[in-house]
Amino acid sequence: MADPSTYRPATGTIPDAPGVYKFRDATRRVIYVGKAKSLRSRLSSYFADLSTLHPRTRQMVTTAAGVEWTVVGTEVEALQLEYSWIKEFDPRFNVRYRDDKSYPVLAVTLNEEYPRLHVYRGPRRKGVRYFGPYAHAWAIRETLDLLLRVFPARTCSAGVFKRHGQIGRPCLLGYIGKCSAPCVGKVSADEHRAIVADFCEFLAGRTDAMVRRLERDMLAASEELEFERAARLRDDVGALRKAMEKQAVVLGDGTDADVVAFAEDELEVSVQVFHVRGGRVRGQRGWVTDKVEEPLAGSSVDAQETGVGGLVDQFLSQFYGDQAELSDNTEAAASPVPREVLVPELPEDHEAIEEWLSGLRGARVQLRVPQRGDKRALMETVQRNAAEAFAQHKLRRAGDLTARSAALQELQDALGLDSAPLRIECTDVSHVQGTDVVASLVVFEDGLARKSEYRRFAIREGAEGGDVGSIAEVVRRRFARYQAETAQETDTDRPGIDPETGKPRRFAYPPNLLVVDGGAPQVAVAADVLAELGVTDVAVIGLAKRLEEVWVPGEPDPVILPRTSEALYLLQRVRDEAHRFAISYHRQKRSQRMTTSALDEVPGLGQTRKAALLKHFGSLRKLRQASVEEISEVPGVGRRTAEAVHASLAKPEGVQT
């Protein structure tokens, strides 16, 4: 681990100007690239006290062996140079957005004499116009099949086109009217290109004008008694309308925009982009990507990239930079950058990003956060898609038997256990400023949650000692109960089974591994309680949430699991489930306390009648809305008591008598 002070440049030598900087490791490999309005201010922040740095920043500066910078004239130039260097050097500590798959697009080969329409995946090529991307190839083929009736352009490969030209007979699509058959000369090259041009105009968003034109032609044909042509045009209009219905109108003002949303945790980020053209969703793209390659376990982006604004900054520069490189069409309608980019949060240097995007588009681009109306609703939809994609990603990973087996094996190796921890229990504490203190105990067997084994605890004496005291109480109660149930065993053939009910006892089985949510103090107290109870066959670790460090009792330094480790991922899932279960119990306790306190002021109202009132009305809110007559209908509640309840609940909150 390098000492940053050994390569820290003198503050006076760093220019107070916009620029881009590179950190290099001992092998001269670039490990981080960043930009700054003021190089002096930004670089000085990296050489502060290590204990005050963000964990990922701390690892980066201790991995680096030198820093260098380049001064530029404007922030826009800094943005452009930063993008170029990230592409060139692929730094390990930069957040990187890469598609996890190649999304299908609809390609139109305008560089050929007879342009072809086809589904395409892969790098963009010169002279080809692309529409999309789409989430599924079948969606393109379905839309294309509808539109070929109106725009009978060539869809066959070069080999098929050449073969049918040689035999002088069109393919099946030519016979059924879904291809104009340029291979056999039914239309000229210019006529076929005109058909393709109309097709491109329709997909580019000029749908209404084309439908109106076809309707005018249909009426004209009808007036001229050309009924067959009128019927064909009528069917064409119907096909266009059906194709348009498949692309739902989300923005009624015909807006061209990309809508970007994120869902994230400490290690990964899910990105969703909806491409809206002419007010309709023309394409969707989404992926889940690692934030960094190998950060300090569980750390997030660095101090300049923390939060959604930092994710937006990194995404826009990389995504649109890549799109601009792929596109060779400079027409505004075909530009990869739309008029608007809607994001959940503006980055710090959003003015420079707007200027850069405007340069890529060749026209003004607006970067904004939607506040209300249809655009806000669409942003919420994209956000839900990002969260759902993230959840599905985690479920797929959790459901992978191979990954679960690898996680258990990695835990055994990393912690030096005698066997893989097939049963893992985790405890977490939840409270608000020391009130309504509760704890959870969740159980994972073979890497999967066993919700029937979950337990929850209302903390009694341990609350005075904070989280450490609460964890000590939970561990003591859990394993004291285990010892008591073990001592009651009478059926040696069926250990852990209650002979009266035939069901497993609540605390009959000890875990192989006990995980506590916290660092060294929490682990130490849990280990002390187990030693006090004489439990020696249960391993204890702590998972510190901020740094995702694994603490082992008696060890001065934590165990650092690789960020891509399946073992770390399993521990995070266990810890997060314990956190969720504890919070839900805490909210329930707090709600019950608040409800009970509201009824405590009613004289002569005991616990039995309180419970009857709440059971009858279902909630305190509905009880507040009830009349005296409705309250008095509850069994055991008389008129006078009903009046007292109604008067007490009708008082403004906070009024004391």
TrEMBL record:
Keyword Hydrolase found: no
Matches recorded under InterPro entries: GIY-YIG_endonuc (IPR000305), GIY-YIG_endonuc_sf (IPR035901), GIY-YIG_UvrC_Cho (IPR047296), Hlx-hairpin-Hlx_DNA-bd_motif (IPR003583), RuvA_2-like (IPR010994), UVR_dom (IPR001943), UVR_dom_sf (IPR036876), UvrABC_protein_C (IPR050066)
GO cellular component, one term: excinuclease repair complex
Annotated UvrC family homology region profile domain residues: 259-530
Composition bias, Basic and acidic residues: 491-503
Annotated compartments: Cytoplasm
Positions of the GIY-YIG domain: 16-95
Function (record text): The UvrABC repair system catalyzes the recognition and processing of DNA lesions. UvrC both incises the 5' and 3' sides of the lesion. The N-terminal half is responsible for the 3' incision and the C-terminal half is responsible for the 5' incision.
Subunit: Interacts with UvrB in an incision complex.
Family, as annotated: Belongs to the UvrC family.
Name of the protein described by the UniProt record: UvrABC system protein C
Organism, as annotated: Kutzneria albida DSM 43870
Gene symbol of the encoding locus: uvrC
